[in-house]
Structure to design on (136 residues):
């Protein structure tokens, strides 16, 4: 029997959608106002879901307190109130689109949970725009 537990979190961060290897004109045409040279910010909403077998001793798939600590350490502390392009090493050469942010978060959290657990990340960039990543 496999069960999914989920934990919500949020962080506020600035970013700029921009490719260094493209001209300003091409970046502007593709990314529009999201290519603002002075960056722009979002109040990101995050849902992290872990699916696995219930431990017969604890009754948990994973202690939600443990999951909350992982999210705090891997996402909230390094991303909250940061400029993703400038302050977060994972985005030094990776365009911080919502899709790429979700994949980075998935990779950071996946390293911290049991290998037989499934992991799903849902990242809300706005109330209407969100991405889901479940791994390869």
């Amino acid at each position: 029997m496999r069960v999914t537990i989920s934990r919500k979190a949020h962080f506020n961060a600035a970013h700029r959608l921009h490719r260094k290897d493209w001209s300003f004109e091409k970046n502007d045409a593709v990314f529009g106002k999201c290519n603002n040279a002075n960056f722009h910010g979002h109040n990101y909403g995050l849902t992290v879901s872990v699916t696995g077998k219930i431990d017969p001793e604890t009754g948990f798939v994973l202690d939600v307190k443990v999951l909350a600590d992982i999210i705090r350490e891997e996402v909230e502390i390094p991303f909250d109130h940061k400029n993703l392009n400038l302050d977060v090493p994972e985005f030094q050469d990776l365009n911080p689109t919502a899709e790429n942010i979700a994949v980075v978060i998935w990779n950071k959290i996946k390293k911290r949970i049991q290998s037989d657990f499934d992991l799903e990340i849902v990242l809300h960039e706005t109330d209407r725009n969100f991405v889901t990543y479940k791994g390869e």
About this structure: The mean pLDDT is 97. The radius of gyration is 17 Å. Strands lie at 2-15, 40-53, 82-83, 118-124, 130-133. The helical segments are 24-31, 64-79, 84-87, 98-110.
